[in-house]
Specification:
Elements (H helix, E strand, L loop, with lengths): L3 E2 L7 H4 L2 E5 L3 H12 L3 E6 L6 H6 L3 E4 H6 L3 E4 L3 H15 L5 E4 L3 H4 L10 E7 L3 H9 L6 E7 L5 H12 L6 E4 L1 H16 L1 H16 L4 H10 L1 H19 L2 H14 L2 H15 L2 H11 L3 H11 L2 H10 L13
Parallel strand pairs: 2-3, 2-5, 3-4, 5-6, 6-7, 8-9
Antiparallel strand pairs: 1-9, 7-8
Helix pairs in contact: 2-7, 9-10, 9-14, 10-11, 11-17
Length: 335
Amino acid sequence: MATIYYDQDADLSLVQGKRVAVLGYGSQGHAHALNLRDSGVDVRVGLREGSSSRARAEDQGLTVKDTNEAAAEADVIVVLAPDTAQKGMWNGGLSEAVEPGDTLVFGHGFNVHFGFVTPPDGVDVLLVAPKSPGHIARRMYEQGTGVPGLVAVHQDASGDALALGKSYAAGLGLTRAGVLQTTFQEETETDLFGEQAVLCGGISHLIQAGFETLVDAGYQPEAAYFECLHEVKLIVDMIYEGGISWMRHSVSTTAEYGDYVSGPRVVNDSSKAAMKDILTEIQDGSFANRFMEEIESGGDFFARKREEGKQQQVEVVGRELRAMMPFIDTPTEEH
């Protein structure tokens, strides 16, 4: 059985006795910094010079310093910059700011697990990650609850790394909901696989293929959009609330029967074989190296695919239909 920690398993005073530097103030960074501060922790935010997030963090009452300066004065250094920025940050002075006895905390194991960042001996290395976007982790904390999270120990120089990890998780409010103990390897590989095969790559391409199949057969694009994209939220909400069986119980018997007889024709042994190939490429580092090489070479493929995706018919139709639905809080793009 998995090991899950709750409030009674964590000593909040451990992290309250530390000076913490949160490096980055994006989705996760702002949630970590604000939740820790409100839990009585001495927090400062580290940002690169000229960061557009500096004013926002200061407006929310946080002390902001340059990245390496914040890290140098802290006991606990929390690396929450994007995966693509962490290698450059580490080689750009952060490694020199980390001293024996410090603790490094990561929100994702990518750079450590695949060797783009190699922490020195003499420091504890932890992973503490909410299993939600940062704004949800912040909102739930403010409401007096929390979201589930993960904790992992990569390096235990002090002998007390896990205790501090649980304390840090309590400061984020994660132990209110439960914190699963994992490893850097498990967190990284399962996270990448879930994103690629199911949550992002799987769902987006399934929606696209379904939409195109209906449109190519002569159906109205608007009708195809409603059936293949708009209603995805309804189904996902039911699965989230009660699992797959609850969704099947909640939909019509026609839809349930279609699930059983047609679902395996779309997602079948061939699909699962492709998933296994994807997992192998994640496990052996092929994906990580390809991704980092793409970014370091200028990201031309990445940028091209992003722009192509915005011009797909399902996206064009979707923008038009969502403009007619005032109940949808349409997000602004931030890339």
